[in-house]
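Hello forum,

I keep getting stuck at the same step: I have a sequence, I want structure tokens, and every attempt I make locally crashes halfway through. Rather than fight my setup again tonight, could one of you with a working pipeline run this one for me? It's a single chain of 365 residues.
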Amino acid sequence: MTISPNRLISLDALRGFTIAAMIVANFPGSEKFVYFTLRHSQWNALSFTDLIAPIFLFVVGVSIALAYTKYVTQHRPKGGLYRKIVIRSLKIFAVGMFLNLMPDFDMTTIRWTGTLHRIAIVFLVCSVLFLNTTWRQQVWIGLVTLIAYWLAMTLIPTPDEGKVILEPGRNLAAWLDRKYLPGRMWQGTWDPEGILSTFPSVVTGMTGMLAGRWLLSSASSLEKIAWLMTIGLFSAIAGYFWGLTFPVNENLWTSSFVLVTSGFASMLLGALYFLVDIEGHTDGIKPGIIFGANAITVYVLADLFALFFYRMKVGSLTLNELVVHSLSSFGLQPELASLLYALFFVCINFIPAYLLYRNKVFVKL
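Reply #2:
Ran it on my machine without issues. Output:
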């Protein structure tokens, strides 16, 4: 594949490495033995794994800016583009539903939310906003959304409780999900990708749109990097202090969580942009580019491969359990054995990703 001179190689690599990190977090060798930072935080906290989803949504936002800026600046007709955006969103959502229904396809236990579902919604809303608002309007929409979410969650009593509470399953977002969200919820009485928390997750995508718009500006490369790093740092700091009253929490996708994670994503993109696109240090990023070329396809393949690796038994153990047991028997710490299996599973998924990339097959949902 020949990389276009106008293409951000750093963004492709960031997208791909984020997908690889998702696979590591989603498919450990054993759920019993996982390093703390490779687990999602149970509630108020921030682990490495908690950063993965918001960074991917940030990348979605940057990609929207790179793909659709010409429609805004050149005043191109948008009618056909809206149709493509809606269709793509529906396809991503449908694939998410397919993964939720696997392997039994039992409609009585259907779940209508998930990672791909949220990506589809964020892509749809952010794309429409990008095509119809200025960057200043997007800043105000994002700020108002985060403040409104904060006030709603901290001032409106949960009807079931009669008071404001931010505990798992007992907060306003969980109550809305129980009342209005159809199907099964991930945690029984609440869902981390529920209705109310989707609003601030859209803002995460919007922060990526603002970063992408800045990267396309006429500013010098060093100015672009300086602003990405500076704004990212101040965003993370602001999120930390906001978190003192509205805790950083991925399950609720709190306003402070948006600022902290978007800040980290901005700094990470700025660092990669400097190292890769400006300085030309491309050694070691090729796997990220390969994964990033078919990111959602790789994500889906990982779920499909898991049906084999996590269900096929050798004796009384599944394949993943066998690997962890074997490595542990050689004296390795169980958590390390579990991580090594996850990295092995990433390599398994790299094979089809590489074959698609080498044959210039890019699956676009």
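The chain has a mean pLDDT of 92. If your local run keeps crashing, start a new thread with the error log.
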